[in-house]
């Protein structure tokens, strides 16, 4: 199956799933502090990190417990995500609940409902603060799906931020205010982009949902965080084109919006960034390109 056909099918499946139902949140009063596709341990985050006051973890929908991991099982070693439970739902969607202490009767659980308790926060993990790592796996297509596309919506009034922009060419970095002068040639556009989070009480930098870059009115970069897959051990965000982690994240909070061959004259750029609640931020800048 061609890549673009596969992405079309996936988008149709996600849209169909959203129209039929939405997953319940596995915790009460969730506070999302890390989003799908974020910069995590030198790779893309494959799910969400969620803080909650109530430590009880419930399935997001009816399903079947197909796997669990805890230190009571022979030969178990602590992992980065700690103890976890995997539940399989309809349409071959699986949900992962990690960083939890599975319920004592987890081995006896087969069919579960959204009211059952899978466990509590507190399983062994490498994180300093207890939180739930929640991921959605589409086992039919062999990929992770952004959980926020399937979970019930929660209030988020904060718009994404575009804090700064810089250009990189053979001469080095050039900071962009509103106008900048740069020599013609191949240039990479980088920007400090993030979603500030969903709560005024807890500040955190998260990945947005969609990023677009326009040059003189023409879209030259597009990325949305709908799904990711692993290829030879490397995570790839699946958008219009696959995006490797090292091709996107540039360190110091910057991301790459691709390269462009600049020619002498005036160039106008616009960056648009949106989050999962359709809050949007835009920023334009003008370049004077010289020989």
UniProtKB/TrEMBL annotation:
M23ase beta-sheet core domain residues: 47-147
Signal peptide segment: 1-22
Keywords per UniProt: Signal
Top-level taxon: Bacteria
GO molecular function, one term: metalloendopeptidase activity
Name this protein carries in UniProt: Peptidoglycan DD-metalloendopeptidase family protein
């Amino acid at each position: 199956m061609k890549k673009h056909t596969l992405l079309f099918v996936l988008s149709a499946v996600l849209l169909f799933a959203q129209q039929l139902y939405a997953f319940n949140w596995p915790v009460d009063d969730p506070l999302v502090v890390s989003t799908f596709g974020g910069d995590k341990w030198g790779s893309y985050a494959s799910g969400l990190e969620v803080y909650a006051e109530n430590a009880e973890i419930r399935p997001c929908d009816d399903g079947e417990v197909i796997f669990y991991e805890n230190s009571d099982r022979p030969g178990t070693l602590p992992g980065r995500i700690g103890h976890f439970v995997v539940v399989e739902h309809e349409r071959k969607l699986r949900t992962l609940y990690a960083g939890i202490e599975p319920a004592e009767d987890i081995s006896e659980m087969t069919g579960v409902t959204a009211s059952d308790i899978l466990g509590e926060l507190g399983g062994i993990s490498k994180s300093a603060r207890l939180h739930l790592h929640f991921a959605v796996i589409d086992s039919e297509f062999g990929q992770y799906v952004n959980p926020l596309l399937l979970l019930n919506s929660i209030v988020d009034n904060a718009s994404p931020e575009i804090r700064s922009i810089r250009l990189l060419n053979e001469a080095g970095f050039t900071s962009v205010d509103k106008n900048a002068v740069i020599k013609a040639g191949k240039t990479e556009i980088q920007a400090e982009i993030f979603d500030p989070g969903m709560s005024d009480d807890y500040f955190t930098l998260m990945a947005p949902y969609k990023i677009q870059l326009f040059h003189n009115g023409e879209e030259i970069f597009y990325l949305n965080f709908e799904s990711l897959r692993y290829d030879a051990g490397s995570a790839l965000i699946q958008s219009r084109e696959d995006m490797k982690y090292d091709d996107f994240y540039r360190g110091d909070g910057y991301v790459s919006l691709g390269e462009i061959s600049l020619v002498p004259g005036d160039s106008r750029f616009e960056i648009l960034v949106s989050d999962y609640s359709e809050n949007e931020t835009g920023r334009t800048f003008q370049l004077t390109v010289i020989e």
